[in-house]
Amino acid sequence: MAAAPRLLIAAAALSAALAADAPVLCAAPAAQPPARAVAFTLKNGLQLVVVPDHRAPVVTHMVWYRAGAADDPPGRSGTAHFFEHLMFRGTKTVPNGELSKTVARNGGQDNAQTSEDFTVYFQRIAKDKLPLMMQLEADRMVNLDLSDANINTERDVVLEERHLRVDSEPRALAEEQMEAALQLSHPYGRPVIGWEAEIKRIGRAEAQDFYQHHYAPNNATVVVAGDVRPEDVLKLAQQNYEPVAPHMLAPRMNEPAPPRLAPTRLNFAIAGTKLPQFIRTYRVPGYVDSPRGTAEAMEVMTAILGGGPTSRLYRTLVVDRKLAVDAGASYDGHNRGPSELTVFAVPREGVSFATLEAAIDQVLATLDRAPPEAGEFERARTKLVADYTYQHDNQFLLAMDYGQGLSIGLSIADIEDWPNRIRAVTAAGVRNVAQRYVVPQQSVTGLMQAR
User: Fold this and answer.
1) Catalytic annotation, pick one of 84, 116, 176, 296
2) Could you tell me if 264 and 169 lie in one domain?
3) Which of 102, 323, 361, 392 has a CA 20 to 30 Å removed from the CA of 209?
């Protein structure tokens, strides 16, 4: 069980358009292939999505709750992640730990994950065991054992997880502080795992309240990918999930991100830091909170900037100028709220942060000055589409793609048409997002000194 982590360019005539809310420039998209997934809605509000995949007699079964760290009550960060742990403590009919043991006895694997926007529980197993998986998930959707003993035991487990995965990991500590600085008072500024003092404040009453107002069929999406027929999965879902009554849900807040007026710099001297590291994170638009085509252009821009050994950052800093031993960039646009672009580099021995940062800024400026050249632009788009295709060859990642997209508010059409939208990105569109969003006031720079 894990808490999910949380990832420059037109001629002078385009600059005036950038000052307004101008759309990202995109070419006409290619024709969309037939939909692969089939969606249903049960009488109790549960959303069911079936993705047939007949290459092997297995299924991936996932339950996605629209409840994540952003839904934690004020002053009790980590509640959603804590509850992920509690869901494995058993019910009136399934003892503590027995669900995972049942999955393992039947040759499957199970786990769970919490992000800012959702919590997902999943099993990968032989297709004839799908009814059993639905029975187990429907049971813990409503019959969870929230005794004081379970609450106290699992709170200690979560605190130990925090100590191991965050408090003893210098980069995790630095990124946690940077996230808080970047997002200001927005809920994304709270760590998914929670602040230690606030985790300690979560008790039985808080757990019961969270369960009652977030864990319900009308707040869930079930995704089944595998060797199944949609009509058969619908019947199973009606038998197992439909008897679970809907609940009155806690309203989800769509809090606007507070404005950032200036860049932030953090200098870290954390014991245990093995190598110096440069990390810069920008608050940028994602797939949900921006005009269509913006996030896709951000994806292409990030691939050009830092997506592997042929990217501008790696080629300039590592290969040509030999200022770093590693460098790159990542973009995480799959959020209900603000998204992030991260640029990183590890300086070579003897290279100062000042020298490294100046070189990074020079690379970023190249995105600002001119659209990407044709070769690197086409390579970036081709690789993104190829990665999408390879990812969907993996049944688990296929199901994850649908579940994550639907949980943040995208549609099945959005998910399945993504390659066409990447192909529609133009070089001018890449320059547009670089000029508009990769700007100093939206950034937090962290310098990690080796200690």
Assistant:
1) 84
2) no
3) 102
